[in-house]
User: Which sequence fits this backbone?
């Protein structure tokens, strides 16, 4: 009787890490996803024939779905909806992308159920908003169901963002920021069908157990910290960073109100002009008219493959991450591995604090401004954070994550169970 696990996710999140951890522990049955870059497979082999600029953009996009440490024979790909969703999202049609995502998840789930029937596993490991139908199918067959909740509960998110929208409306692309009830109901169904729920941080767990959400799930939830990609991010001594230049701040990821980009832009605009630089690497989720007020102050880089992220981190002094609502961003672990200091909110993993950075006591413009100025005015402290970072990253390697995953699996699938 197999004791292997099937991992499925129509996109990515950190599903490749989970699959790799299970592969390393000899317990991966298969990894099902929609996009997995293999240069000699269609449609990726068409890239060399595209016009140069389009080829560069598509190569960067596909590079985010490249996992060289995963054995190709364990990967199963199906579904075109993810391609459409990402196209709409990149074009700025996020509401349409969300609708395509829901339809795509339904189609993807049917494919995963068929895969389960053809290639049986003892457990399935799925992710929020794409697991309900698969879990229902698995439950009928006595297959253990593990839900990986990558972000906090949507009810808490809606309550939190309502106040932010009231104060910072120009930074929102749409007034329809709230997670709809249909998605909340879907996630409730996933909670109920799951045998166990894993999250990456205490913050994420606490939002699920909030009185607004599902405090009845306390016995189901375990915290399993994520890891960084040691293929592209290898910890070591921080690179030399001159102290006589402006401090180089970096923001990585989706640059929208949920991530606190409005606080960072407003705070940075108040800094002395020659004191610091700010680079944003990721998808801008702020209306163009609003961002135009800050465009001369910052450098904006569109989404890049993970292999290129490390270079931006090593060239920067400090990652700034004033997020309002998270699961557990791997970006922080990647920054630590690259010897980058951290300024972050408490609504995230706090593994870098206090040795490699500081956590904001309040999430407002003044607090972010004060934190930036502290790093600018205290270069010795900034350097001490940078030097402490790689050692902290050593605790969040794929080996550490694999050990935690295998221990959790032993709990969920005991050998004599």
Assistant:
């Amino acid at each position: 009787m197999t004791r292997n696990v099937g991992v499925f996710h129509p996109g990515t999140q950190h599903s490749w890490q989970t699959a790799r951890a299970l592969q390393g522990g000899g317990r991966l049955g298969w990894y099902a996803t929609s996009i997995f870059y293999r240069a000699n497979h269609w449609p990726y082999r068409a890239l060399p024939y595209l016009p140069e600029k389009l080829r560069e953009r598509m190569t960067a996009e596909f590079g985010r779905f490249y996992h060289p440490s995963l054995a190709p024979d364990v990967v199963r790909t199906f579904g075109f909806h993810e391609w459409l969703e990402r196209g709409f999202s990149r074009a700025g049609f996020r509401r349409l992308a969300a609708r395509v995502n829901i339809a795509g998840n339904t189609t993807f789930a049917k494919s995963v159920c068929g895969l389960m029937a053809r290639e049986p596993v003892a457990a399935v490991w799925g992710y929020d908003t794409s697991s309900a139908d698969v879990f229902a199918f698995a439950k009928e067959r006595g297959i253990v169901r593990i839900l990986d909740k990558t972000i906090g509960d949507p009810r808490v998110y809606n309550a939190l963002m309502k106040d932010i929208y009231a104060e910072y409306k120009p930074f929102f692309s749409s007034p329809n920021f709230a997670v709809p009830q249909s998605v909340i109901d879907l996630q409730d169904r996933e909670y109920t069908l799951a045998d166990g729920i894993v999250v990456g941080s205490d913050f994420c767990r606490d939002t699920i157990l909030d009185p607004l959400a599902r405090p009845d799930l306390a016995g189901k939830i375990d915290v399993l910290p994520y890891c960084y990609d040691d293929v592209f991010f290898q910890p070591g001594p921080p690179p030399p960073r001159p102290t006589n230049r402006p401090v180089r701040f970096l923001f990585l990821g989706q640059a929208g109100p949920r991530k606190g980009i409005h606080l960072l832009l407003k705070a940075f605009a108040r800094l002395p002009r020659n004191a610091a630089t700010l680079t944003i690497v990721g998808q801008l989720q702020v209306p163009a008219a609003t961002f135009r007020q800050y465009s001369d102050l910052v450098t904006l880089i569109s989404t890049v493959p993970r292999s290129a992220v490390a270079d931006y981190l090593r060239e920067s002094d400090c990652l700034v991450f004033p997020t309002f609502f998270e699961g557990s961003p791997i970006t922080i672990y990647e920054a630590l591995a690259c010897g980058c200091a951290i300024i972050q909110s408490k609504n995230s993993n706090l593994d870098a604090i206090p040795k490699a950075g500081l956590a904001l006591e309040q999430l407002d413009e003044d607090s972010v401004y004060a934190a930036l100025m502290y790093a600018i005015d205290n270069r010795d402290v900034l350097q001490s954070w940078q030097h402490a970072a790689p050692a902290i990253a050593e605790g969040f390697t794929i080996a550490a994550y694999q050990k935690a995953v295998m221990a959790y699996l032993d709990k969920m699938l005991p050998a004599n169970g």
Remarks:
- Residues 81-88 have pLDDT under 50 and may be disordered.
- Residues 94-118 form the longest helix (25 residues).
- The first strand starts at residue 5 and ends at 8.
